[in-house]
């Protein structure tokens, strides 16, 4: 499906970008920022290397004693695929034209993973609850990082914008306590999940690990997809139309942006005087009350709200990061095709604000995975994603909320080959959409990687719903991935849990579709579900709420994921 990207005043801007890019190509041989000193190249694949030089220029790449040659095309671009290498290093690489040579040093061969998504992947190691200790011990020099600076764009970018020479962003850097504690690197440091994941992969494989961080808070899946991905038949029409409207009106929006920004700043000053300053005091009092409540084992109070909402920041002329395609264009397109082992992904919160978006997430997310695999040109690499955690007030009813529908969409996405999904509905935070514990999620993500990406025969999943059968007024649920067996409550290291722990989180319904909390008992490798209120049950739901109470685990300590045995359509209205 072809679309018109260039119209009106946007045409002039696009031509200017092309001219600037062309002039840069003639300044000698150049590679994208993703290549450089300290980079880690992916083992066991034909390593792709590309860049720009004079039109018709001969380019030679020398690596590990062998020289690879090519000639630039009419657009000044060149591409070479190097050999296939085992883990090791350090090495050097030189890229030369007739009059210019570029050399990269301290190159390692290992496994490269991309950490992507929204704010829970962005959440930095410096503010993670175990971060201080982790930073002090961050001495493994065979873990290297590349943080992609945040950038949105209406058109796919070929490279990352130039960063200051003294910045750690936008270049490969070597793990160290000093780097991990640097306040000017990424958002409170590199992704905590990304770092902990890298540690686990290093321990299990023994090879160097490169982590590329490309993430932005409050972004929806459609912001991380290419035009091709959204346009694939049947297209996601509303997202395509939204992006095209921004393209068509880019010139006018640019011209009026200064006035809109000034009006916002005036409104914000007024709001702060009348509302914001007092609200800030209440917010601090609430934060203190939350800490006290948690310390005494009480339910934290509800977060206060301002007497009237603060004014909205005007959208940038290109629509901002959360506009369809914009995050992909600015933060994935510049690194696409770089040799990788796989993707780790933590996103979905922003597609869980509306029920329709939550239900549609399965198709959208599946398309995103296929979109990235197509553009990366490396086949079906592993794509591992985190299921949404527990959040908001504890569940009141046995079936409520929007996030269960996102979680179900994520579960169904496991039908895509070489995917994996840890369950973390037991390690979230009722009052914080950004749980500060990233150790457990990263560990479970690494278990999935070891199974899916590395083929290890390990326990990597909690119980997964398999089938149900009705026996009188009871429904018997069977599971896959029970491993050593089922247990109520997270088991101790020896695989046992308290015998008196009540199994929670199960709801049961008759044909009317009204779910009530049920009694659930582990019997062997099954769970028997019943309720005195439902004499003719037909369906069971487990952990079907934004913040569910379920505590079913296998004896290996991994939680069962939310599921439902019915195929009833979502309700027209959802209780939060």
DSSP summary: helix tally: 12
- Unreliable residue runs: 5-26
Report the helical percentage: 25-40%
Mean pLDDT: 93
Strand residues, percent: 15-25%
Radius of gyration: 26 Å
Number of strands: 23
Q: Structural class given helices, strands, pairing?
A: alpha/beta
User: Describe the biggest sheet?
Assistant: 11 strands, mixed
Distance between the termini: 39 Å
Choose one word for the global shape: globular
Descriptive notes:
This protein is α/β, with parallel strands linked by helices and 576 residues long. It has a domain at 464-564. Helices cover 28% and strands 21% of the residues. The protein has twelve helices and 23 strands. It has helices at 9-25, 119-122, 131-136, 177-181, 192-205, 227-231, 237-248, 250-295, 326-332, 355-376, 403-412, 439-452, and strands at residues 40-42, 48-52, 58-63, 66-71, 77-81, 88-96, 101-117, 143-147, 172-174, 209-215, 342-346, 383-385, 419-420, 464-471, 474-480, 486-488, 506-509, 516-517, 519-523, 526-530, 539-542, 552-554, 563-564. Strands 1, 3, 4, 6, 7, 8, 9, 10, 11, 12 and 13 form an eleven-stranded mixed β-sheet that branches. A four-stranded antiparallel β-sheet has the order 14-15-20-19, with no helix packed on it. A four-stranded antiparallel β-sheet has the order 18-17-21-23, with no helix packed on it. β19 (519-523) and β20 (526-530) form a beta hairpin. The radius of gyration is 26 Å and the shape is globular. It starts with 8 loop residues before the first helix and ends in a 12-residue tail after the last strand. The model is unreliable at 5-26 (pLDDT under 50).
């Amino acid at each position: 499906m072809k679309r018109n990207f260039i119209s009106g005043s946007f045409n002039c801007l696009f031509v200017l970008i092309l001219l600037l890019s062309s002039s840069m190509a003639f300044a000698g041989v150049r590679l994208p920022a993703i290549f450089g000193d300290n980079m880690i190249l992916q083992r066991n694949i034909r390593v792709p290397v590309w860049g720009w030089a004079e039109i018709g220029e001969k380019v030679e790449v020398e690596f590990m004693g062998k020289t690879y040659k090519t000639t630039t095309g009419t657009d000044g671009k060149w591409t070479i695929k190097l050999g296939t290498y085992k883990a090791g290093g350090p090495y050097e690489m030189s890229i030369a034209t007739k009059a210019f040579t570029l050399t990269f040093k301290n190159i390692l061969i290992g496994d490269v993973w991309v950490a992507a998504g929204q704010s829970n992947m962005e959440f930095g190691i410096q503010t993670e609850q175990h971060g201080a200790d982790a930073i002090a011990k961050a001495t493994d020099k065979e873990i290297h990082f590349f943080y992609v600076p945040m950038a949105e764009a209406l058109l796919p970018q070929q490279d990352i914008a130039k960063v200051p020479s003294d910045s750690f962003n936008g270049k490969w850097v070597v793990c160290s306590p000093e780097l991990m504690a640097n306040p000017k690197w990424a958002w409170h440091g590199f992704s905590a999940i990304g770092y902990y994941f890298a540690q686990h992969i290093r321990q299990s494989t023994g090879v160097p690990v490169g982590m590329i961080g490309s993430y932005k808070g409050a972004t929806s899946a459609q912001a991380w997809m290419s035009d091709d991905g959204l346009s694939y038949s049947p297209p996601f029409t509303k997202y395509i139309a939204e992006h095209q409207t921004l393209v068509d009106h880019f010139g006018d929006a640019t011209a009026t942006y200064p006035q809109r920004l000034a009006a916002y700043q005036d409104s914000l000053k007024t709001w702060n005087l009348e509302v914001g300053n007092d609200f800030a005091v209440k917010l601090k009092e609430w934060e203190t009350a939350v800490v006290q409540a948690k310390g005494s084992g009480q339910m934290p109070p509800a977060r206060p709200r301002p007497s009237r909402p603060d004014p909205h920041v005007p959208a940038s002329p290109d629509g901002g990061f959360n506009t369809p395609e914009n995050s992909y264009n600015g933060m994935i397109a510049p690194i696409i095709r770089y040799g990788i082992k796989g993707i780790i992904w933590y996103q979905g919160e922003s597609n869980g604000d509306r029920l329709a978006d939550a239900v549609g997430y399965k198709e959208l997310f599946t398309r995103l995975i296929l979109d990235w695999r197509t553009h990366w040109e490396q086949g079906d690499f592993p794509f591992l994603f985190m299921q949404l955690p527990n959040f908001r007030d504890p569940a009141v009813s046995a079936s409520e909320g929007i996030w269960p529908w996102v979680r179900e969409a994520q579960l169904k996405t496991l039908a895509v080959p070489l995917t994996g999904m840890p369950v973390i509905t037991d390690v979230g935070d009722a009052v914080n959409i950004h749980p500060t514990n990233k150790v457990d999620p990263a560990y479970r993500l690494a278990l999935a990687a070891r199974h899916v990406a590395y083929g290890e025969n390990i326990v990597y999943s909690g119980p997964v719903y398999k089938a149900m059968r009705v026996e009188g007024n009871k429904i018997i649920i069977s599971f896959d991935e029970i491993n050593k067996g089922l247990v109520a409550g997270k088991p101790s290291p020896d695989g046992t849990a308290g015998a008196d722990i009540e199994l929670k989180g199960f709801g049961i319904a008759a044909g009317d579709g009204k779910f009530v909390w049920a009694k659930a008992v582990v019997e062997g490798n099954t769970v028997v579900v019943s309720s005195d209120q439902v004499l003719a049950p037909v369906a069971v739901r487990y952990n079907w709420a934004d913040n569910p109470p379920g505590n079913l685990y296998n004896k290996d300590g991994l939680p069962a994921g939310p599921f439902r045995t019915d195929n009833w359509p979502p309700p027209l209205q959802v209780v939060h």
